[in-house]
Prior knowledge:
The protein is an alpha/beta fold and 353 residues long. The chain folds into two domains: 41-171 and 321-351, Medium-chain alcohol dehydrogenases, catalytic domain (Quinone Oxidoreductase, Chain A, domain 1), CATH 3.90.180.10; 185-298, 3-Layer(aba) Sandwich (Rossmann fold), CATH 3.40.50.720. The chain has helices spanning 12-22, 82-88, 92-95, 164-169, 171-184, 201-212, 226-232, 244-248, 261-267, 286-291, 305-316, 333-341; strands spanning 41-46, 57-62, 70-80, 110-118, 130-134, 147-151, 155-157, 192-195, 216-221, 234-238, 252-257, 271-279, 295-298, 324-329, 348-352. The strands form three sheets. Strands 3, 4, 5, 6, 7, 14 and 15 form a seven-stranded mixed sheet that branches. A six-stranded parallel sheet has the order 10-9-8-11-12-13, sandwiched between helices. Strand 11, helix 9 (261-267) and strand 12 form a beta-alpha-beta unit. Helix 5 crosses helix 6 (201-212). The longest helix has 14 residues, at 171-184. The chain is globular and about 65 Å long. It starts with 11 loop residues before the first helix and ends with a strand. 50% of the residues are buried. Pfam families: ADH_N, ADH_zinc_N_2. Residues 51-351 form the Enoyl reductase (ER) domain. One of its GO terms (molecular function) is oxidoreductase activity. InterPro entries: ADH-like_N, ER, GroES-like_sf, NAD(P)-bd_dom_sf, YIM1/Zinc_Alcohol_DH_Fams.
Amino acid sequence: MDTTRLPIVATLTALREWENAHTRHISTASSHNSGGNPMTTMRQIQLTEWGDESVLHEANVPIPSPVRGHVLIKTVAAGVNPIDVTTRKGLGPAAQLADPSYKPFVPGWDVAGTVVATAGDYTGFKVGDGVFGLVSFPSPAGAYAEYVLAPAHQLVKVPADVPCAQLGGAPLAALTAYQALFEVARLKEGERVLIHAGAGGVGHLAVQLAAQAGAQVFATASAANHEFVRSLGAQPIDYRTEDFRAVLGQTMDVVLNSTGQQTFLDSLEVLVPGGRIITLTSPDPLDVARERGFEAQWLTVHPDRTQMQEIARLMSLGLLKVHVDQVLDFSQAAQAHALVATGRTRGKIVLVP
């Protein structure tokens, strides 16, 4: 059984069983090829200059060696996020921390897979454990690779019987939604929240989390996505044919914006006095909102193990589901970026090695 070719409906429970049956073959950071010889290199998607999708290319590079405080993960799935596209262009916080002309940059921060090696220190994980998490963001993490060396404290064990593609697509988007709603906006039961782009990667998870928290949820989406958004727990508003300001009036306690400056400004019209608006895009005019008495914050997501554990718990109970729009091979990373850049995908795009 080749773990790099698991069907997308496979779960890491099955993968762990396979790995446990083969742990006698894993004595170092290397895996083995079909001839039983240790493998020392891996496939990786990288770039050596910022640019469009064409700068992404595949390379064979050495498999990382474990270091203290980290675990080596054999990747099963890696999510693709808008920040990956932004960074590839040389923009955003992650691009400020990398120089691809000096050292090839490997995109990606979402990873799900199995631990294949440690440095021998205590990490809370053992070889064969299924793990997932948001790794090192916004510093380079190199998740578009067959193996990822990740800080152990940023990972959690995978929930049983959740498809691998969902696990790979969850961390960054789910943490963004969770932090925006609960860490920053402090959303409470019974409050009313508007989530823009409710069918998108962050949006569709934010809808579910807000609904689970007992909030009354409204979400902008195209007509084609109304049934999908409604099934997640939100009342949809067609952003193409309806003015959400006229539909809602000044009734929202919280707004989550991910669609730009004009939407941010328009959203101020639906907030109750003292309402909270959280934006994921920059630059949005936070001062304008604050001058009008609203709480306004711009969120950059960060790894958080405790929050990831809660996300894993909700996924294990079936209360939080990542909709995976497409699963593509690492060799199709450029296509994945092009899809994400359209802003029209439903849920997440996921890469598999």
